[in-house]
């Protein structure tokens, strides 16, 4: 069988099965969880390349929490042995909080017996010197509500009346799109690859239809599901279409989806969270089993600032 990118997360049949998040404590506005929301106490470790981390970067930006929760960006090139590294660069930096050289050190400081893959994002507690959470799902919701007392931004990405529907759509998007591109790209079986790709494009077709008569997934305002979808769509034509062989169609071939990602990209502050240099170098250089030459493609050219044409939709 072909060597898998992550052998510990590969089934005998050749399917990629993502590991579970290791740390899932919560920060709350009160002291009920043991981690109380405080200004300056918590720090995000992220990669600009990673879609899971990108979700938390966007919510931090939208909620106006940049002065409340610090953030450090890792090198987009992940080492085979040591994983995500803190190095000085134009955007990524050394770790100003703990002086860690590798993110793995944060995992081992929290659990000395940890042996799984080190992932981003990570929310670090500077008081207890440990990881609170490495679950992007949980972190999106913590950032959405737990720190409201420290921001003037009253945006709610997970409103109570729509939570059941949001959760249901999130599951479909995660299974078939967010993780679907990885299930295609990391598969080591032709049949499993084809199944993942067909499920992916079936889901994209459904989303294209859903967005035909409404501006965002739930109407006139982008909610949590929109940003969960956006981080995959913005990487699709640049990476997943070619690198992960998700090439039945491009996002630019979907009129509604392409207008939709331009609309979200042009949302206040969001474009500055998108770094195509980090995105492309991470995937094309790090996944050497998929791209052994480690050549990073120049394209595609995308005009994400052109009119999105979705203002008229409710």
From TrEMBL:
It comes from the Bacteria. Residues 49-143 form the GST N-terminal domain. InterPro entries: Glutathione-S-Trfase_C_sf (IPR036282), Glutathione_S-Trfase (IPR040079), Glutathione_S-Trfase_N (IPR004045), GST_Omega-like_C (IPR047047), GST_Omega/GSH (IPR016639), Thioredoxin-like_sf (IPR036249). Pfam families: GST_C_2, GST_N_2. Gene3D superfamilies: 1.20.1050.10, Glutaredoxin. This is Glutathione S-transferase family protein. It comes from Candidatus Nitronereus thalassa.
């Amino acid at each position: 069988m072909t060597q898998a990118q992550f052998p510990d997360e590969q089934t005998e049949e050749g399917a990629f099965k993502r590991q579970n998040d290791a740390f899932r404590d919560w920060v709350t506005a009160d002291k009920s969880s043991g981690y109380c929301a405080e200004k300056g106490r918590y720090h995000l470790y992220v990669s600009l390349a990673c879609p899971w981390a990108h979700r938390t970067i966007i919510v931090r930006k939208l909620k106006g929490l940049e002065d409340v929760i610090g953030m450090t960006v890792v090198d987009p090139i992940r080492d085979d042995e040591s994983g995500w590294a803190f190095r000085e660069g134009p955007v990524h930096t050394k770790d100003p909080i703990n002086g860690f050289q590798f993110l793995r050190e944060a995992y081992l400081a929290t659990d000395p017996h940890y042996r799984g893959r080190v992932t981003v994002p990570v929310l670090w507690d500077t008081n207890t010197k440990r990881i609170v959470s490495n679950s992007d799902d949980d972190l999106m919701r913590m950032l959405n509500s737990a720190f409201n007392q420290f921001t003037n931004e009253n945006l709610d990405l997970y409103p109570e009346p729509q939570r059941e529907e949001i959760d249901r759509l999130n599951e479909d998007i995660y299974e078939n799109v967010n993780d679907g591109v990885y299930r295609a790209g990391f598969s080591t079986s032709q049949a499993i690859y084809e199944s993942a790709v067909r499920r992916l494009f079936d889901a994209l077709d459904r989303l294209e239809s859903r967005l035909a008569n409404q501006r965002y997934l739930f109407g006139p305002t982008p909610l949590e599901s929109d940003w969960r979808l956006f981080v995959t769509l913005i990487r699709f034509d640049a990476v997943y279409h070619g690198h992960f062989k998700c090439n039945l169609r491009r996002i630019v071939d979907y009129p509604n989806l392409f207008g939709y990602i331009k609309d979200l990209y042009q949302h206040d502050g969001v474009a500055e969270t998108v770094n195509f240099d980090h995105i492309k170098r991470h995937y094309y250089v790090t996944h050497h089993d998929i791209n052994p030459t480690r050549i990073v493609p120049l394209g595609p050219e995308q005009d994400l600032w052109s009119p999105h044409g979705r203002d008229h939709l409710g």
